[in-house]
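Lab manual, section 2.4: Encoding a predicted structure.

Procedure: take the sequence of the chain (167 residues), apply the prediction step described in section 2.3, and record the output as structure tokens. A sample record is shown.
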Amino acid sequence: MKRQTRFWIAAALLLAAAGAASAGGVTVKYQDPDKFSDVPFWEQDRDQVLKELTAHFEGLAKQLPANQQLSITVTDIDLAGRVEPRRRSLHDLRILRGGADWPTMELTYTLQQDGKVLASGTDRLSNMMYLDGLNRYAGGDSLRYEKPMVDDWFKKTFGAATQLSSK
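Recorded output:
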């Protein structure tokens, strides 16, 4: 009985490992995040934003083939809206007006497969119409307006590249 249980546990672990290996990987770095145009002032809040953004890039990288590795260095972030300090609260208030306060991000990237560079470049992402249209991210998501911008960039930049390289 114990052998059979061990067998099924081992089989489940192997299947989980195979599933994890079926997706590409990503490395995300942030170059001088203290100097970014607009991220939260408090270190704890800033770290949370960068952690959430890293997790989002990791989720997108799962769409890449297993033998592809994406390296991203974020050089600047300007979150949607503008921060207005609050006197009676520990947290500042982010106001979204839809004017010249759209989210932007600058980054460099390299996509490799088996040690060969498939794509690389420097991009400036922006979403001037961030308050218009449907947004599939929940209202409580702190990066609700930045994630669609990153999604669009990822699809535009790697959608065709990943399909070509898998042939």
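Check your result against the sample. Residues 3-22, 160-167 have pLDDT under 50 and may be disordered.
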